[in-house]
Write a structure and sequence with these properties.
It contains 4 helices and no strands. It is mostly helical.
Length: about 80
């Protein structure tokens, strides 16, 4: 993990902050192949990046979970996203 962090910090120092959006942090997620395909297709159709779609989906879900004020919807959504063992 330290090697990755060192590489990340080196890259950031070389590129400068103009390539790192203000106030954002990098996260990595694993998607199922069919989810990635659908995401890529939608991004192409809407002429936006996959990152923009992911950020929008995260923001929308967070609002939905907060407004629901219940763990029921969150638990249902977690069941959809969990990895199978």
């Amino acid at each position: 993990m330290k090697k990755f962090f060192d590489a990340y910090m080196y890259m950031r120092s070389q590129l400068g902050d103009k390539h790192m959006p203000d106030g954002m942090v990098m996260r990595s997620v694993y998607l199922r192949p069919q989810e990635d395909t659908k995401l890529r297709q939608l991004a192409h159709e809407k002429n936006v990046s996959k990152n923009d779609l992911i950020r929008s989906a995260v923001a929308a879900k967070l609002r939905e979970w907060e407004q629901a004020n219940s763990d029921e919807r969150l638990n249902e959504d977690l069941a959809l996203g969990r990895r199978t063992r």
